[in-house]
Write a structure and sequence with these properties.
single chain, alpha/beta, Alpha-Beta Plaits
Amino acid sequence: MIDGPDGSGQIPRRTTRVSDGGAPVSGALAIVLAVLAVVAGFLILRSISDGGEQAADFPASGSSADDPSNSQDVAPESTDPIATLPTTTTLPTLVKTGATVIVANANGVGGSASSMSRALATDGFTMVDAVNSAVTIGDLDISVIYFEPTLPAAEVVANSLAAVLGGVETIAPMPETPPTRDGTLNGASVLLMLGNDKAGKTLAELAPELSSTPVAVTNPPIAGEATTTTTG
């Protein structure tokens, strides 16, 4: 038998068959590539996230975080109104004993020295009878107080006397000859030369903040009503 081609044509070639294991190898490679892509994406995302945190930890120069005035340690400015402390008035310490006081009328109001002497006695001062000032003194517009410098308590009482009179500008040592009508003090060591500024006035009028005597207050008149007077 002849092995050559027959008359029908060329001898058909044999088709190469794909290995039975080809398909599984390609599928495994695809899985590996997919896993690598997922890992690479995760690493990229993590790198981006780490870079954002570093940027937050280190703000750019010139930002408000670099300004010490924006530190959280700076206390916010208070908007509360400043509390107002109550105002208190300190009254002077008055010494009314330890020295005797005499009042001399050195003004043009008759009887004013006697009235002032009685008022001072009621207020706690040790008094002797009032007298007139020396003729050469005449009428004083401003009262004067003299004290005996050899008696320490006399100056203290003189200052207290000035306070209850609402203030006396001149407080001085006693002249060698007291300026009274007869030149004597009748045993007193403090002399009040009562001038026109204090004559005829009560202690409550002269120094109301020191007086315990009620002061008469006249209410302003209201149309159609009579004027009333109250004490307070």
